[in-house]
């Protein structure tokens, strides 16, 4: 008799040993995200020379933050998706083997393959549902902040759900190579065809702006639309552009690959390798931005490859940050307890969506709502803007610490988890429960013996021989 399957409330499996490195890295990543995003909200001072503090901060930000925060975000996103897939695969294979064998024998190789194949289908559907909900969350968030990134990662999850679930590593590598080639082909065109190609090169390597400034008839049309409609249009094109023309896809695939190793789960076992990766990655990322930074300070001429180098080597910088943060977080402890700054970062990392959306709310309050209520615009330099970003991030740290103290998860994590779980459609079970024959000995005049209870998965249950004449 066919049955239907339903999902559990949690799509990440039962709570057990938790690895601190991903959570700590997410918590720190949100500081980098705040520092990178604050420039989208605040207008710089017009007609006033920048201070030494502003120039120094802009230089350091270009070396270690710009085009580093979002690759780090993508690495952790891919790692999280692959971890979710691995847990769903493990639980799915076990459940389907139970159904195929009834728990009375070990599954055959063919049955194990069947169970693995169906578990992969379930994992693919899970990743795709999660991605679709992230796109919806991103759409709503994009109405307020068109440069938001949740929808972009949702698009990646939807498009490549099967590749994450089935671990198509060769296909992933091919796509990564294609993205890299797409960054440098415009550079080659610039070298071959001169200024026109150079303009194409510089434009191809930079993500589309959140909302291009319209002119002429376009300006009047845009002004007639509500602000949130204009923002949604800007979000749509920004999300698509960022998903397929930046290093987000390669970073997500690399993060998924890391989930199949213990580099992040047990960084204490790989201190030497992670130290080299951390120093080397951050150095490469800084090197990629160095030439463009030196152009206005020296007589050097800009390169057509500057923007592409910043973007491609920005992924190396993101890897460097992940290695450093994994080393700092260390491996899991027996009681899953963290202390000090690690605990605070982990609190934020386990509520990363709530913290990220809270940043938007606070930036909007500071730079949009407050000026309109007071009638005074906010104009800050680079250093002051960075200070505001740090304060916003610290506020999310306090918020997440309070939620941790109360034993509460992030509200948006709860909402996403519930949406993903409850949107799973019931479907016919491909493997009806197998009920073994209950053949028991029965002597004349005696009642039939009670059936043997099911054995644990993989156990061998001996069957007594049937007496002659039974």
From TrEMBL:
Biased composition annotated in UniProt, kind: Polar residues: 428-449
InterPro entries membership: Bact_Transport_Assoc, DUF418
Biased composition, class Low complexity, residue ranges: 457-470
TM spans (from-to): 24-43, 69-86, 126-144, 150-166, 173-193, 232-253, 273-295, 307-331, 352-371, 383-403
Alphabetical UniProt keywords: Membrane, Transmembrane, Transmembrane helix
Matching Pfam families: DUF418 (PF04235)
Region (Disordered): 426-470
Residue ranges constituting the DUF418 domain according to the UniProt record: 261-421
Protein name: DUF418 domain-containing protein
Lineage of the species this protein comes from: Bacteria, Bacillati, Actinomycetota, Actinomycetes, Actinomycetales
